[in-house]
Specification:
The structure is a homodimer. Chain A is of the alpha/beta class. The first copy, chain A, contains twelve helices and 13 strands. In chain A, strands 1, 2, 3, 4, 5, 6, 11, 12 and 13 form a nine-stranded mixed β-sheet that branches. In chain A, helix 1 crosses helix 3 (about 90-105), helix 1 packs across helix 12 (about 390-410) and helix 10 (about 335-345) crosses helix 12 (about 390-410). The radius of gyration of chain A is 22 Å and the shape is globular. At the A-B interface, helix 8, strand 8 and strand 9 of A face helix 8, strand 8 and strand 9 of B. The structure holds N-(aminocarbonyl)-beta-alanine (2 copies). Chains A, B: This is Peptidase M20 dimerisation domain-containing protein. Chains A, B: Pfam families: M20_dimer, Peptidase_M20.
Chain lengths: ~400, ~400
């Protein structure tokens, strides 16, 4: 059995690096706090009998040998990086549950069949370096290592430079072929309200919805706000505002809405940032989601149509570039069944599809993968108010232990 | 008579400091290029027989004595600072026309009745340091010198620090009382399409419309874009987008629109700038205008009502603070008559109300003031494509000379 108190205490302890005064976290990938929590993580897994490797994307694999060390390890992983206004659970809980499983197995002196790996994946959030799930994406062959290294932050630093700077640009190739895993389990907070509404502490995750991200660049014409008549303008910010409203309308209109469509513009920047000069340039990012790949196509089509009409009305031009696409994912039936059986034994589960992308989405393309969700208060995430009760965190850890041991036995 | 070629050549010469590759200007108030053009301006007026004073706001007064030097000087002024994506005429033409008048009078060895002042006002644009017309505003007692010095740029520097840094924090008090003028004439490009449509090179400006600027801060709730259902969001950027659309609707709806209302949001900034975190905070600036003070009140009221409804729909809060207000202005009848007579003699004028604010708006509160507009191609301003034909620039300079001499005689 996992130790609920130890799990929760260690989780809070690990949040000392990157915590914010409002109780949240700001541990962006590759920043100084990311370095500190990685150093702590490495020291901790070493204490519990692991060797470790750092790969070319900074992913850390802590390995505990099993009976059959010719097999790749079964991995329990998630991420220690956070959003700029993030909480103390997103990703962190997953790594800490994995660590708790390691501690239990180590203390009980169990020799598992396959080796065990505890994995911290780099830059899952995609907040500082887009796209999200970058470390696991490179590992799974979705992106090249060069692509991963070249991702650039708004400050102008690259992922590769920052990994080098914090001492986590490792020599192990970042590749599912050169550094294989046998399977991947991940605990994560739900980040949505389904378990909270259903009053279930734990979710058995059957898959994840499709995601697409775009870069949008709107061009209008700078002009004086005071002397330019309203009907002689080409206002890039007005056009952008109508696009934001349009995306919302598309995602909230049936039948797409009833099938779970989501559409959001959360990042905007305008120029030339002068109160009395009509904005001539606006850049934004669009995030669309759906459990169904065909609905993603439909949302994209409707957005393009809507944006075109807005552009015609305002004489603005638009560049629209897809910068990330992640199709709908189904996790591995046997792995999901291990999670289900483990959850049943503590009688608290609910079957669920993930609204967020996770490292498990990429690992699932190459190795059997499944996820366990912990309930998250009011469904709030990517917010300092993000909270999962200690008993829910503990339940997720317990389900992880059971699912992992079942799969290892299998 | 003014020298058209010299005026235009000198204008283009003075644009070497702060010019941009696209043919426009980026000479923000208090930056290095502002320092260079000021140094050149001081050298130039010295060559043409002027002494000069720099006041506590960096306004430069170049003085040429007259017959009666107990009188304050009649000023010909405008500004040498520009927008970040500005043109080569806005403000610059006014100072250069004044310089051309000085050259003509100096070379013709005329002794005017009152002394003559050529004035470069500081930070007319309000682009780097809000509000606009700051140097003339402090001079006219609208703002205190402390207020003027404390204005802060987005880089965090203050107006006072930057004046000190470039060597233009002068010792003359910035005050219409301590450093008086007898009157103020200003040439400026129209920055709108009226003269271009009327096919008149020069406008006799009778007044300027009312302006208000606001700071808006919208607060929502950060949440995950993928896992947060569309109906459980408090999206600050979606609310802000609807506010941008609302302002446009108010300004383009009769009867306000037919009376010349204008409303623009041109500056927006959102946080936390992460593609998959719904924006929790948005700040914007609102600029509203009308020739009628009562319409400004009405626009403000309608904006507040509209914003409130949007806030209720999205669960967002709003701070709305008026940061600048400039009532509708009527210029001095006798001064306007001097401009009219001078313009008539070259048979090219059109009576006009200014859509933009100008330093003359503030000087007019304390001393007789009038303005002359030069036609501006397609009405485009605050844009690198801003253009006034050399002959239109020359016509404005010629009208300035005639108006000034008429008033001096009077
Ligand atoms: N869990 C999480 O926030 N992942 C980031 C990728 C996404 O935006 O869904
Ligand atoms: N002329 C000019 O651009 N003035 C700035 C003040 C305003 O925004 O009207």
């Amino acid at each position: 059995k996992t130790n609920a108190k130890r799990l929760n205490d260690t989780l809070q302890y690990s949040c000392q690096w990157g915590s914010t005064p409002d109780g949240g976290m700001n541990r962006l990938s590759g920043n100084d706090d990311d370095q500190k929590v990685r150093d702590w993580f490495v020291a901790e897994v070493t204490r519990y009998g692991c060797s470790h490797q750092v790969d070319a994307m900074g992913n850390i694999f802590a390995i505990r040998p099993g009976q059959n060390n010719t097999l790749p390890p079964i991995a329990l992983g998630s991420h220690l990086d956070t959003q700029p206004t993030g909480g103390r659970y997103d990703g962190i809980l997953g790594v800490l549950c994995a660590l708790e499983v390691l501690r239990v197995i180590h203390e009980a002196n169990i020799t598992t069949y396959a080796p065990l790996a505890i994995v911290n994946w780099t830059n899952e959030e995609g907040a500082r370096f887009s796209p999200a799930m970058l470390g696991s994406g490179v590992w799974a062959g979705e992106f090249s290592t060069e692509y991963g290294h070249s991702r650039v932050s708004s400050e102008g630093t690259t992922m590769g430079q920052e990994l080098q700077r914090i001492g986590y640009l490792g020599s192990t190739p970042c590749s599912y072929q050169a550094n294989p895993l046998l399977a991947h389990f991940e605990v994560h907070i739900e980040q949505g309200p389904i378990l909270d509404v259903a009053e279930k502490p734990v979710g058995v995750v059957k898959g994840a919805q499709a995601i697409r991200w775009y870069r949008l660049a709107v061009r209008g014409r700078e002009a004086h706000t005071g002397s330019t008549p309203m009907d002689r303008r080409s206002d890039a910010l007005l056009a952008a505002a109508k696009m934001i409203v349009e995306v919302n309308k598309i995602a909230t209109t049936a039948p797409l809405s009833t099938r779970g469509a989501r559409g959001t513009i959360a990042v905007i920047n305008s120029g030339p940032q002068s109160i009395n000069t009509i904005a001539g340039q606006v850049t934004m990012n669009l995030d669309i989601r759906s459990p169904f790949d065909q609905d993603i196509e439909e949302i994209e089509k409707l957005c393009k149509q809507g944006f075109e009409a807005i552009g015609e009305e305002h004489g603005t031009s638009l560049e629209m570039e897809c910068i990330w696409t992640s199709p709908a994912t189904n996790f591995h039936p046997l792995m999901v069944e291990c999670v289900r059986q483990s959850a049943k034994s503590i009688d608290c589960h609910h079957e669920i599809i993930s609204g967020a992308g996770h490292d498990s989405v990429y690992t699932s393309r190459k190795v059997p993968t499944a996820m366990i969700f912990a309930r998250c208060r009011d469904g709030i995430s990517h917010n300092p108010a993000e909270y999962s009760r200690p008993e829910d965190c503990a339940a997720a850890g317990e389900v992880l232990l059971g699912a992992y041991l079942r799969y290892d036995e299998h």
